[in-house]
Amino acid sequence: MFYHDKKLQYKVRVEKPNPQFARALQQAIGGIEGEIRVCLQYLFQAWNSRGPQRYRDMLLDTGTEEMAHIEMLVTAVALNLEGASSGLVDEIIGNNTMMKEVMGGMDPRHFLSGGLGAMAADANGVPFNGSWVVSSGNIAADMYANVMAESTGRVLATRLYELTDDAGMKDMLSFLIARDTMHQNQWLAVLEELGHGDMRNVHPIPNSFPQDKEAKEFSYVFVNTNVDPDEPSIGQNRRWTQGQSIDGKSQFREEKAKPYGQEPKLGPPAAEGHAQVEQLQQAGEKV
Amino acid sequence: MFYHDKKLQYKVRVEKPNPQFARALQQAIGGIEGEIRVCLQYLFQAWNSRGPQRYRDMLLDTGTEEMAHIEMLVTAVALNLEGASSGLVDEIIGNNTMMKEVMGGMDPRHFLSGGLGAMAADANGVPFNGSWVVSSGNIAADMYANVMAESTGRVLATRLYELTDDAGMKDMLSFLIARDTMHQNQWLAVLEELGHGDMRNVHPIPNSFPQDKEAKEFSYVFVNTNVDPDEPSIGQNRRWTQGQSIDGKSQFREEKAKPYGQEPKLGPPAAEGHAQVEQLQQAGEKV
Amino acid sequence: MFYHDKKLQYKVRVEKPNPQFARALQQAIGGIEGEIRVCLQYLFQAWNSRGPQRYRDMLLDTGTEEMAHIEMLVTAVALNLEGASSGLVDEIIGNNTMMKEVMGGMDPRHFLSGGLGAMAADANGVPFNGSWVVSSGNIAADMYANVMAESTGRVLATRLYELTDDAGMKDMLSFLIARDTMHQNQWLAVLEELGHGDMRNVHPIPNSFPQDKEAKEFSYVFVNTNVDPDEPSIGQNRRWTQGQSIDGKSQFREEKAKPYGQEPKLGPPAAEGHAQVEQLQQAGEKV
Amino acid sequence: MFYHDKKLQYKVRVEKPNPQFARALQQAIGGIEGEIRVCLQYLFQAWNSRGPQRYRDMLLDTGTEEMAHIEMLVTAVALNLEGASSGLVDEIIGNNTMMKEVMGGMDPRHFLSGGLGAMAADANGVPFNGSWVVSSGNIAADMYANVMAESTGRVLATRLYELTDDAGMKDMLSFLIARDTMHQNQWLAVLEELGHGDMRNVHPIPNSFPQDKEAKEFSYVFVNTNVDPDEPSIGQNRRWTQGQSIDGKSQFREEKAKPYGQEPKLGPPAAEGHAQVEQLQQAGEKV
Amino acid sequence: MFYHDKKLQYKVRVEKPNPQFARALQQAIGGIEGEIRVCLQYLFQAWNSRGPQRYRDMLLDTGTEEMAHIEMLVTAVALNLEGASSGLVDEIIGNNTMMKEVMGGMDPRHFLSGGLGAMAADANGVPFNGSWVVSSGNIAADMYANVMAESTGRVLATRLYELTDDAGMKDMLSFLIARDTMHQNQWLAVLEELGHGDMRNVHPIPNSFPQDKEAKEFSYVFVNTNVDPDEPSIGQNRRWTQGQSIDGKSQFREEKAKPYGQEPKLGPPAAEGHAQVEQLQQAGEKV
Amino acid sequence: MFYHDKKLQYKVRVEKPNPQFARALQQAIGGIEGEIRVCLQYLFQAWNSRGPQRYRDMLLDTGTEEMAHIEMLVTAVALNLEGASSGLVDEIIGNNTMMKEVMGGMDPRHFLSGGLGAMAADANGVPFNGSWVVSSGNIAADMYANVMAESTGRVLATRLYELTDDAGMKDMLSFLIARDTMHQNQWLAVLEELGHGDMRNVHPIPNSFPQDKEAKEFSYVFVNTNVDPDEPSIGQNRRWTQGQSIDGKSQFREEKAKPYGQEPKLGPPAAEGHAQVEQLQQAGEKV
């Protein structure tokens, strides 16, 4: 079963809200390359697993971690949308040429349906589709599906990195890119155990993104999200927790999951989004 | 962020596998009334929340709990599918009249795509659709969406209860029905705080299901899934953790989340499902 | 069965066409919060109803009214699109900076697929999806689904109201917002009959929209769309046709459906949309 | 705008409920060949019409008629499902071999989600999709879309006719098949006015269904659903209301819409479907 | 079975890349009026055909031709996207007012998911949907579906023609519009054989597009894509290969399929799209 | 561009029609693991390719081959459906207990919508979805997507193999399984060129299917579908046309595409499917 705390896995900071970038970030939430897909994919593979147990455990650990990534990205969308609705009003009503340009590519449903919140959809507002969740019953096929998901996912993250010069967003993405590096490696580690030989030079995909831009301290660490005090989950001898990484670029290590970010703080609801009166009045309250 | 252990929130036991019932259970996983929807809905509402904070916290607690319900149901599907593929082979090849009857309504993708595993889809194999995740930015509209989801969800669970006489499945469903009772009550508690008056007689929906068939010890308890040791999460004065329940039938109480079930144990892969050789050989291994 | 006349339920007037606003209006037609959904939802609930009869009758009356709302909104989209295609041509070809700004957020399919007409889709062009039509067989669950639909629907309508300063569009929306007020109240009236207590203070959702901006003469009137001369449909003693409204803000009354609007008049097809020659020649003809 | 009465356009009678046939009928409700599609397609074409007016009027008349067809088919599904859930319980639990055979092909969501009611979905439970609603802005393209819809629709209806020997269902289908004959003819009449020459020998599609099995008194009558007393809607000189039909097989005539069926009467909710207690108690009440 | 060469059926040239036009072109690839739909529709009708054989052969020929149209349009999208990502970066980051205007309507997934490549989706990014592939088993119904598809398809192509002043794009579209003219005629020829009379004046739909703008040398030629040297495929007496065209505007003729275009040459990957290093290094290599 | 002949790539023979197996085969046509997906995926990757050219060429060759696989499978579905509709009539009408058992799991749309023809949908009738077509612009990510598609595809094919004892179907599947072996190897060959090391032991996935059951003469041959006489397409030095296969189990070789099967011959339309009269009369005609 599952637990949470209120802090983010890594800090999410937006220096200057940008509703166009919020739209682009949706691809990483509800798109086929996004985090809802990998979260459900790893968890369904774990829950459907018929052995051996170490793969089930590993999938559970990482599926749980991906929940925290969805959380970070939804927070990033919400922060990037702050102020967007007044700009959208200006744009559509036509009083404000400058805002029009800024707002041109916003997803209108971020305001209309979400009241400045994220959706379970991609960058075009196309809903997340459960057909993308691959759990085939064949561990090698599943691992290829996972390497593929982390490869297209990391490609997406590096493109998002290119689309922003907001230092906060670049920082968040450097963390997510690093985690994709690790996740590619850990699925490859299973393939190695299943008989694959050397796979060192292609990864991490894309190999054209300079690794010194990723948050390297997180690039080769297996995050263990298991909180059972009776479970000797740290320190077991696993291919993905020690020894050389599969891409040959570093050493694996393992770490108990803990938040590096803080509890997120969103601004109050926008008046034009018509939250309830009580929300507008109590938005700043701590309880 | 999120954590897990390897045990189920409540025990999942199948006395006699039934692949038709596995198909029906899919509606509670990936259908519009199902657990993926409520899980994502509560978490998106929490993550998009712009205050007050107590609602965000509550949504996080319960969204996290719903993850454990998906886990229970996927486990139940997998257990109900054991032995199904050999029956399906017999049925389609046509050697075995008796099995044909048993297998008549099975979802063929449970074997073809899942290798006897669950999918992110409904009872007809229609994939989960992200459009069902409602997070409107208006807390009252969201709470109505949540009461509605728990009402159609509890109606579904009671219909599933009628569709089985497997004692293990009835036990699991009595737990899920009880949790739906609580969840209806807790969203109503928010509406009460927002100014709603008395709402006691309609709930829990459906009111035609005898509450002595639900696992009553879980029907009015708020499950706190927060594991932050620094967080005084238990014992705060909340409308949904103490006092009379909104349906007037009991008293609310609060409990730290803990597993009442065990780690799930699925059978080995079926030979005809063509897992990798290594899976077939190592299925029973503990590592 | 069903009948029509050629007039609109309420007047639809656009002072200055705005294709961006046309796109936003699509959410109220084919989005999950939109009128196709409530129309089909109320009608399926009526047609599937197994008693008592007064709820079936009421659902039929209001489901029929929602048809007229789709009609109004499609007309509004078509009127807002007039002139849009020449602007789009200018924008994409790049001769006209000013038009480019106006057209920036237009849905390209309004021209490409619709020839300046509305679609059965949302503000992002995602098609209407029949999975949103809830008819559960449990009247209380259905009523919560209906309150939820009218709550998110009214939130959407108030946000659309904020997005325009066109007096015609504001007038149309003030009518639709008023009808949502009534519809919230009438579904709550069923819940009251089923045993719910006082529900007066939360509604209409959102409570942050000033009710003096809605067309108040329509906010608490049950519109009876039944035209059977043998049917004593007006004047029956129903909770939703007389007495205090559930939100405590007014008195219910009942009215036979009649058009307050006129027959809609759209402009001729745009040359660049390539209607048939006969359409271009005969567009203004009365027959 | 729109009106209704409580009677069906044509009688719907089921001699022996058959849940497998209920599933097949769903294709005619929410499938791509079904009535929701033509209803919305004709209405969107009418509402988006930019002239000449006679086509808009005609589309409104027939779009309104299609609403009544959805109503008839939903009623037919609900009647065919009576008793189905107890059979389904027996089937899945496994006590009853005979019922198992009868129930083998039932849609489980008819019970699980609908409580023995119809859905906005096709025969496989795939939801209705708004992308099927064609309104192109070109009247000739639209008319071909309409002929095509009525051709695949009539093919479907004749196949459903072959799938039943229930006299009530055959009678209902003979009416719907006749209406499809007329609708093919009336869209062809528009094409004739637009310059098409002789189109007499192919229609009605399929031409392999003996027309003496359709309810011939309805096969060439234009049903005028306009109830405006000020509108001279009957008796106007239209190609589709008088003269030889386009298929050369009869003469067109026109009729004011009126119900040939009665108010539908469904049985009470099934106990195992868990309607509210009040529904079960009051199901037979007339109010 | 199927074969290919590396050249395009007709030349595809873009004078000035325009990512907004790339988005519009997507409708002709993955939209309901697009080429994936007609390609699969004609091939499924051929493969499912139960005679007579000449229709199966014809459907195979033209379904195969449509593959080449998808290829042309994907090439056109890729060429129109060249340079788009640096513009998008500028736009979202906000350094470049001019580019912002140019890029306003780009599909963000063309960069995020495709790395400046086309997708199997429509102009709003909504994925191609297999439900649009009509193969009914009734040849007349299928032919109406095909005429309808080519009618809405040709309407779309003429609208795209209006949206560009790029001479290369206009040239490509003049070819596709001509092929739609032929395809409308050839499906009508089947209807004529099935008993339809004169259909000459309505077509090609839309009749408001001047035929001297289409590539007339391709407007009435049946393209025979069969390469079997043993097959007397050219010169058979078919209604669609000789004699007057159905629209009465020209004479049919037949031609063996051959490429009029060259092998496409796309530019190298954009640095910010993060292809693999090897792709960036070897992009210009001939092997 | 593309060409065809009328023969199948490999023979398709059905000894005894089995409509349940027809339903299962749909997963290999329109499911996420199916041939429409790989066909479009490889072709979009080719068309969007920005170099080097040898990968584009290879993707074109194999994407074209996949068209022939869809054709084989659609033919197999149509052959398995022969006689199905009369059985379905018996089943639903209820005269025939034995047929009922045979038909229990048939897809009703195979009759209702297809008239005994295949659809662009999966084994549950869920339509093919264009979102599955991965073309990322990163060659390594794309190759992983392709290995994954061929792995889940081959897993599916081996499960279908287990579901039939029809010698014709087993023969067809042994060919398709062999081609999946080759296709896994050829995408791995690209990864090897990009720097991957040894990958020999895991493949072909699943490794639990005995390779002596696949049509081994096709398991390591690159099928060159290019028919351009000017193109030296055979005999070029490519990693996937000569040398040891990547899985270490054989040697690669290359072959010009040619049909090993014959022109398919389906039976005439079933009377109850209501094809046109002309189809029923002329079904056996060679022209």
UniProtKB/TrEMBL annotation, chains A, B, C, D, E, F:
Coiled-coil residues: none
Cofactor note as given: Binds 1 Ca(2+) ion per subunit. Binds 2 manganese ions per subunit.
Keywords: Calcium, Manganese, Metal-binding
Binding, Ca(2+): 57, 61, 224
InterPro entries cross-referenced by the UniProt entry: Ferritin-like (IPR012347), Ferritin-like_SF (IPR009078), Mn_catalase (IPR007760), Mn_catalase_dom (IPR039377)
Superkingdom of source: Bacteria
Record GO terms (molecular function): metal ion binding
Binding site for Mn(2+) 1: 35, 69, 150, 183
Region: Disordered, residue numbers: 229-287
Binding site for Mn(2+) 2: 66
UniProt biased composition (Polar residues): 234-248, 278-287
Cofactor(s) for this UniProt protein: Ca(2+); Mn(2+)
Family affiliation: Belongs to the manganese catalase family.
Protein name per Swiss-Prot or TrEMBL: Catalase
